[in-house]
Amino acid sequence: MARGPKKHLKRVTAPKHWMLDKLTSVFAPRPSTGPHKLRECLPLIIFLRNRLKYALTGDEVKKICMQRFIKIDGKVRTDITYPAGFMDVISVDKTGENFRLIYDTKGRFAVHRSPTFSLLARATNHGFPFLEERGSASPLLKRETRDWLPNRAVGEMLSL
């Protein structure tokens, strides 16, 4: 009988959109519990090591995260298996780079690099203010901005 949740993830059974090779090792980093499901996220260690090539090993990724250089949606994250998902903004303070995770045409995560993203977080029904993109009511596009301009109002229409 199994006792508790699964702690391991075999590399062969990892999601294909992570684009991990099969022969490097047996296991893949299992994402922590968080805002995105296992099949709909990209762990921070894969983002920094495999996509951006900022580190060669998992220990180097751990050192980068523990120095508090990485922010996801404006909050510092030190967990190397934190699940970053669709439309999340990942900021690297040391280099001043900002990345947004979006899907490409084949369903894989593509990293969209931009020097100036407004730091946006998920809007929920807890009363957070949000700006709607052209009046759409999609929950993926509703975001809360942290750097308010004084002439903006809550719920104001803003075309991005």
UniProtKB/TrEMBL annotation:
All residue ranges annotated as the RNA-binding S4 domain in the record: 42-106
GO cellular component, one term: cytosolic small ribosomal subunit
Gene3D superfamilies: RNA-binding S4 domain
Alphabetical GO biological process terms: translation
InterPro entries: Ribosomal_eS4 (IPR000876), Ribosomal_eS4_N (IPR013843), S4_RNA-bd (IPR002942), S4_RNA-bd_sf (IPR036986)
Keyword set, alphabetical order: RNA-binding
GO molecular function: RNA binding; structural constituent of ribosome
Protein name: Small ribosomal subunit protein eS4
Native source organism of the sequence: Oryctolagus cuniculus
Source taxonomy: Eukaryota, Metazoa, Chordata, Craniata, Vertebrata
